[in-house]
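Note to self: keep these together.
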Amino acid sequence: MPNDQEMSGDPICPLCLRPIPPEARSSLHHLVPKLRGGKHGPTVRLHQICHNEIHATLTEAELARDYDTPEKLRAHPRLAKFAAWVARRPPGFHSKTPGRRRRR
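Structure:
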């Protein structure tokens, strides 16, 4: 039997696995960054807060080399911790990206 999220028809964020309602801030994420050859590659719709956290955590090179699928992104320790934290928030939740940016 489908759950409420499946019945709503809202897309599911592949990082936090929450639905993305129409009023939520969201954006498309290139699984391989455009500057690393992914301009015409696959994209996924994410909550904006989830997208911000990905880019605050990983460099373009790391994304292209090691984190080019939603499963690999969810397996990253900082992103897994973030996903667990944000999963306790409502689907439309947005705030500044918590925590420090990655060291460059």
